[in-house]
Amino acid sequence: MISPQHTDAEKQFVYRSSNEPGDRLLRRLLAEVPAVLNEGACLVTLANWEFVWGSEDGEQALASLVPEAGDTCSAWLIERGRQTPLEYASLWLRDGGLREHETRYHTRLSEWIADLTSRNVSRVCFGYVMLRKVASGERAFVHAERVAGQLGGETHFGSAWSAAFAEHAAATQLSDDALLDKHYSLCDGVEEVRTLVPGTEEITSISFVLRDGIERFESVDTFTSAMLGACDGDLTLGEIAGALAELLDVATDDARLEAARVARDFIARGLLEDSAPQHQLELT
Predict the structure, then answer these.
(1) I need a surface site. Which of 49, 51, 92, 265 has the fewest CB within 10 A?
(2) Residues near 6 by Cβ (< 8 Å), separated by ≥ 6?
(3) Among 50-64, 149-163, 179-193, 264-278, where is mean pLDDT lowest?
(4) What is the mean pLDDT of residues 86-97?
């Protein structure tokens, strides 16, 4: 948690305050932990981090949080929400037992907002970070996203995330040509949802939806819909791309390039998986 520094122990929320400025403790943890991880070992942590007005977002923000991301470690950040300084301070003051009718609440609220605004913090983000130390010669990836949907269900969030992380890591090691030589299938539970104009067969949108593990709702174009619909493990991605090139009257090279891009995107979102035996990511 990000909270003002205090020398007075009575003003500290001991069970959750680092008494370090801003998100420095998180940044120090994520900067130092790669040095003590064994190859293949992971760190998974909850995280609150500051977004400073005018700074970078997305993967650039993750790179600033994890200096080793994309080098010695693969890193995946899931942002679950963001709050203004007022919303963030109010939430944690109430969680600490203070209420709006108390004078101490307003004193602490003013201190908290002043602390955040002193660093030009426009919002506080919160979510999860997973790091994995890569082996020598292994390519690392950096992935950051906002996930607003449900986490968990019949498949635990941690299990779904670990499986998607492993698939993403495996695909990162492959060139586009090697990726297109492989067989992929939609993950269990993925649904294709088509929206029609009432009373007609006119399709207005196509989406691929996963309601379990990490909930996804991805709107797609005609090429992506056709490609994913053909991913049942029988044909390689390259064979599917070749068939779509002929069907849609586009250049084969363009279709292969787009198929590789779509595959990497949907692998990263946990919707597409290698039809070969599953990769196992052990959290050690």
Answers:
(1) 265
(2) 12, 17, 19
(3) 50-64
(4) 89
Length of the chain (residues): 284
Structure tokens at 216: 């996804």
Q: What percent of the chain has pLDDT over 70?
A: 93
C-beta separation of 252 from 245 below 8 A: yes
How many C-beta atoms lie closer than 10 Å to residue 221's C-beta? Answer: 12
Look at residue 4 in the predicted model and tell me its pLDDT: 79
- For the stretch 222-250, pLDDT in tens is 999 999 999 999 999 999 999 999 999 99
What is the C-alpha to C-alpha distance for residues 208 and 269, in angstroms, rounded to an integer? Answer: 11
- Residue 8 has a pLDDT of 60
- At residue 283, the pLDDT reads 47
Q: Whole-number mean pLDDT of the chain?
A: 90
Order the strands of the 183-186 sheet from edge to edge.
Answer: 232-236, 183-186, 272-274
Q: Is 272 within 8 Å of 185 (Cβ atoms)?
A: yes
Mean pLDDT, to the nearest integer, of 105-122?
A: 92
Task: Answer for the pair 65, 77: CB distance below 8 angstroms, yes or no.
Answer: yes
Let me know: does 133 contact 72? Beta carbons within 8 Å.
Answer: yes
Mean pLDDT of the region 125-148? 94
